[in-house]
Amino acid sequence: MAHRNLIPFGPQHPVLPEPIHFDLVTEDEKIVDAIPSISYVHRGLESLVEKRDFIDYVHVADRICGLCSFMHSMGYCQAVEEIMGVEVPERALYLRTIWAELSRLHSHIFWLGVAADAFGFESLFMQALRLREPVLDIFEETTGGRVILGASKVGGVRRDIDADSLAGIVKRLAKLRPELEELSTVFITDYSVKHRLCGVGYISKEDAYILGCVGPMARASGLDMDMRVIGYSAYKYLDVQPMVETAGDCYARCLVRIREMLHSIDLVREAIGKIPDGPVEVKVKGFPNGEYMSRIEQPRGEVIHYAKGNGSRFLQRFRVRVPTFSNIPAMIRILKGSEIADVPNIILTLDPCISCTER
Amino acid sequence: MAWFKRSPWILHYNATSCNGCDIEVIVSLTPLYDVERFGIINTGNPKHADILAVTGSVNEKSRQVLINLYEQMPEPKVIMAVGLCAVSGCVFQDCYNVMGGVDKVLPVDVYVPGCAARPESIIDGMLKACEILEEKYANRNKREKGEEHE
Predict the structure, then answer these.
(1) Residues in chain B whose beta carbon is closer than 8 A to a beta carbon of chain A?
(2) Contact, A216 vs A257, CB < 8 A?
(3) Burial of B103 (0-12, 13-18, 19+ CB in 10 A)
(4) pLDDT, tens digit, for every residue of A263-309?
(5) Is A38 an interface residue toward B (CB < 8 Å)?
(6) What is the CATH number of the domain that holds B27?
(7) Which CATH number fits domain A44-358: 1.10.940.10, 1.10.645.10, 3.50.50.60, 2.60.370.10?
(8) ipTM of predicted assembly, 2 dp
(9) Does B56 reside within a domain?
(10) Chain centre distance of CA B118
(11) pTM (2 decimals)?
């Protein structure tokens, strides 16, 4: 038997913007076991519902995660609205969908960049982050924030976007699209990129299903799972297509994200074409009494927001089940038996969001 | 322009941040904002770093990691608290696992406000940090000279 080594990975590591720690047990260059330890980012914000009233709590929900900030506030608002029986105006639903798809777009572009950094392609990383800026500019002009948007609220959205700005968004995304296609061509065809990604981190369809994968991770293994098709918000009026690949390796996960990114641009264009006129918010009366689970498709997969109220200003319980948490068992399975040099690649293609996971 | 004498390297650690400030720190290193024009680059090794940029407030578990990173950095060093969470705790002040700002654990030199901190203010903070670093070098040199005379 080869000699066993224990290699600590994280919490502070160059490829990880966020702290997660693994004890990697290795035999020569092969990993035989990976033991994760978490809670470096645990804040305990779910218990904050007892101290902030249900309308103020949207600000906390907004800050669960920086990359999918809008999705979290949207999920929270959906849950509370469903409990209180609030009819959200159609225009607000469309605006939410537009912001949500733009969030997905910027998150995936960021992922492409960080993944390029993980396999050592520095200039690709710089290019990807350059292309992310136009999306952030759209956010800044429509909501005022670059990362934390604060645009969603219980009963609608905080701001309207006028018709000229909507037309401008379509124009800018149309300009961005060829540049993104050029960037993704490098990922799809470049020899060295393929060499680092093809066949690495394979997980079969059965394993992905049993271990409870969600999001691009599941879709890359051939599982057709996309929460957008259940038709929350304005997705019921749009033509949503889940992007499914069958290879199940890092390269397939990369392809899924690239195709989703381009599909997001189409969805934004479609939503802007169909958006009706009308108010963007309704007045909310009374307090939530009851419970609801709202399911949303985040950039990383399905997220569930559970809220329970007892008719007072404060919710009794709020819980978030995030996609990274359900993908961690699959990540451990993939890490076992892989080479030590592939570890950053494998962890990155999962697109872990630790601050969501630990809250 | 005293602060262009050196090109300080930055070490970034996420204490309990929501990611928002982390991506803004990363964005400020990339083409549009580009702090590399001041010679500032991101390093993963605390032993090479001059400036420690901390995002997010401190909790029980990240406290020790922060202290370890701080102690591994060579003197003189500058601590930069990026974002409102690192400054005071932001909306998470009342959470049970949040101790408050980074200054509860480490001596912070530069506070960069904002939720999330904008790349422009991060660049401003980095330049302030460079000035403070220069001052610390000057003080150290003076002290060493004084010791020689004695």
Answers:
(1) 12-24, 26-27, 30-32, 43-46, 56-57, 59, 61-62, 65, 69, 90-92, 94-98, 115-116, 118
(2) yes
(3) middle
(4) 999 999 999 988 888 888 888 888 888 889 888 888 888 889 998 88
(5) no
(6) 3.40.50.12280
(7) 1.10.645.10
(8) 0.83
(9) yes
(10) 15
(11) 0.89
